[in-house]
Fold each of these.
Amino acid sequence: QVQLQGSGPGLVKPSETLSLTCAVSGYSISSGYYWGWIRQPPGKGLEWIGSTHHSGSTFYNPSLKSRVAISIDTSKNQFSLNLSSVTAADTAVYYCARAILWFGDFYWGQGTLVIVSS
Amino acid sequence: SSELTQDPAVSVALGQTVRITCQGDSLRSYYASWYQQKPGQAPVLVIFAKNNRPSAIPDRFSGSSSGDTASLTITGAQAEDEADYYCNSRDSSGNHVLFGGGTKLTVL
């Protein structure tokens, strides 16, 4: 059974970079599937951030693309999210997830709340 | 278009059937997936690739699609089905993921 555990700072200052990591257990990332990040501002809906594959194929939300980087570390069996130049609007629960048939149908890990505040 | 539209709220009497819809131009070309989210919890996939259920999902959940609209049907709604439901799919380019705005289901 694949499990995903996100981790990272719960508080980030405005203009800094938000960095989260998702550790995967029960499955080798290098074996396949897309791996993604989705966020949910408090009391609001879901927003896809991006999805990546160990082959290097990566898709990003065009509204975030200039600030986002998603990477995979197969040696640690984890993938990461970096979101630069954050503002209060980036405050959200960030979920990491594993895709199934394409890069956007997801099994979800538990979320990580990130607050952007000075 | 580059959006998926859902009704904000739907209600159903206990034991009755309810349909939750998701409308968008890209659904003419791509299947929708559906997610259930209860307060304080991560979303759970209930339907993928139009009408496939993960093994842990009860068979009262089903999916369908016609034209630009995808639907999630719950046949015999239970109290535990009260939750927010989100659809998602690709955008018209096929290169990005869209989520609908979510539908809050109330079981009366």
Amino acid sequence: GAVVSQHPSWVICKSGTSVKIECRSLDFQATTMFWYRQFPKQSLMLMATSNEGSKATYEQGVEKDKFLINHASLTLSTLTVTSAHPEDSSFYICSARDRRTGGYQPQHFGDGTRLSIL
Amino acid sequence: QKEVEQDPGPLSVPEGAIVSLNCTYSNSAFQYFMWYRQYSRKGPELLMYTYSSGNKEDGRFTAQVDKSSKYISLFIRDSQPSDSATYLCAMYDNDMRFGAGTRLTVKP
């Protein structure tokens, strides 16, 4: 159980393009989803926390107009990188937490999206 | 000082060895402790999670938490080449904090 699907797994596009990444919880409902960025050989850097039906909370230094997050349902959150540039090239990973009550539920991660901007 | 300290390695062991991975932390409010395994170009996979101090065993994996010392460990018995990955510790108290990850290679 607790499967998180992320799509696409790899995208290459030209500078100035907007790219949308989807994150779905397949077998559970997720009130909260998280978006991370990871540089090679580094740990995860939280970009934003996405709550179903409300605005995302962005971490300090993350441009909310650059990284648009939509969490329209309990099983889907999307991250759109607008007008992407080469410095946005990175590995983007989403995670979701099961909304079951009765204690803390750990995050489950998708397989990540490798974004390459030419 | 970082909230969570984890030696990035790399750590290389022969197949069959017992592997010990560790993290220390400074925030005594952390209550939940996780270990994730991340293969190259994949997302982290939850291996173990524990609440407060104590041990938890799952197959070849044992997680230990010592809150008095602010120290957590993951032991891997009879390590296999397929265990080669980066192991991330994580801790939670309203917010999640990750260690830097330890890169492990198990050589056949």
